[in-house]
Specification:
- By secondary structure, this protein is mainly α.
- The longest helix has 25 residues.
- It starts with a helix and ends in a 19-residue tail after the last helix.
- It binds magnesium ion.
- Magnesium ion (MG) binds next to α4 and α5.
């Protein structure tokens, strides 16, 4: 099919009031199509530039409540995190073990606050840490925790 043939066939689907004299209708249709493309590009940017973290937290929390039950489960989560820390200690290069701790820590927070509050707290804490004074890391052994200056 060449372009002329395509145009001819596409004309058959152009059904609207005042066809051929009404420029507003196809212009609005074109805007609608452009909006749909914009929406798809927006979602591509969102999904390829990170995750929808609020949705992730909500999905994770709903799943965890369903599988592990309701309530705070503080002691259960803390003990599980300790177990995962031992697993990291045995295989620090295994990123899944670090992620296990991240998931459990987020689940602990979500059992005390909604996803928006957890995200706000993450951002607030990051800003706080960025603004704090930290000692020179070169003065510490790599197995020592480095805490901010008081
Ligand atoms: Mg693990």
């Amino acid at each position: 099919m060449n372009f002329n043939e395509y145009q001819k066939e596409a004309q058959a689907t152009a059904v609207y009031p005042g066809k051929g004299e009404n420029l507003c209708y196809p212009t609005l249709g074109l805007n609608g199509e452009a909006g749909e493309v914009g929406e798809k590009v927006k979602k591509l940017m969102r999904d390829h530039d990170g995750i929808d973290f609020k949705k992730y937290l909500l999905d994770q929390h709903l799943w965890a409540q369903n599988v592990f039950g309701p309530g705070a489960r503080d002691a259960g989560l803390i003990n599980h995190i300790k177990k995962e820390l031992d697993e990291i200690n045995k295989a620090p290069g295994d990123i899944e073990e670090w992620v296990d701790v991240v998931i459990l820590a987020l689940e602990g927070a979500l059992r005390h606050a909604n996803p928006e509050t957890v995200i706000d707290t993450l951002l607030t804490k990051q800003k706080k840490n960025f603004s704090r004074k930290w000692p020179d890391w070169r003065t510490f052994h790599s197995n020592e925790p480095i805490e901010h200056l008081k």
